[in-house]
Amino acid sequence: MFNDRTTPMSLLLTRRSGKARDMIAPGPDEAQLRRILSAAARVPDHGKLAPWRFVVVPESERAALAEALDAIYVAEKPEAGRIEREAIRDFARQAPTLVVTLFRPKPESHIPLAEQAASAAAATMTLAHAAHAEGFMSCWLTGWPAYSEGVTRLFGEPSDSIVGFMFLGTPGKPLEERPRPDLDDIVSVWHAT
C-alpha cells in the first residue's frame, strides 16, 4: 500500500509520488491547502530567513499559464514544433492543484546560500509529505519551466529561482513501485582511524 497514513512513519516508508498527468479531481480544498502550506513552512530554516515562497496557481488561471509558458518557450526556442509546444501547454494544465515553490535567497545574510537552498528544497519536500498526509498525491516537477528566466519572472522576483512545480490531486491510476536504492549501497558507518 502506498501513502499509508496510519502512522507518520508508515506514511514516510510508503510515500510514493504519482504522475501529474494521471491526477484527477479533487485536489486539496482551500483549508487543506492552507494546512499543507503551513506544514511546508515549518522546515529547518537556519537564521529564520524563510528563503522560499509558495505561489498557488488556481485552476481558473491554468489556461492563461499555458499560454504564457507557450509564448516564453517560443521566444526562447523559435524553432519549437507543434508537439513540443503542446507538451508545454499541457504541463500547465496537469492535476487539480499547482503550487510553485521559489527559492528566494538572502545573500546579505551570514547563512550560507547552500543552507538557504536546502531549506527551500526541504519546504518543497515537506509540501509533498503534507499533501500525502491530507490524502492526496503529489508530483514535484522541474524541466524547462523551472530553469527558464522568463518563466521564473512570471512567479517571482529577479533573484528568485524555481525549486519545483508541485502538482497535487487524487490518483487517477494505480501507483506502481519504482526501484529504490539498497541501503547497503547508500549507507556507511564512519570510524575514526
Automatic annotation (TrEMBL):
Cofactor: FMN
Keywords, in A-Z order: Flavoprotein, FMN, NAD, NADP, Oxidoreductase
Lineage: superkingdom: Bacteria
Entry annotated with the keyword NADP: yes
Any single Pfam family the record assigns to this protein: Nitroreductase
Nitroreductase domain mapped to chain residues: 26-169
EC number: 1.-.-.-
InterPro entries documented for this protein: NAD(P)H_nitroreductase, Nitroreductase, Nitroreductase-like, YdjA-like
Family: Belongs to the nitroreductase family.
Protein name: Putative NAD(P)H nitroreductase
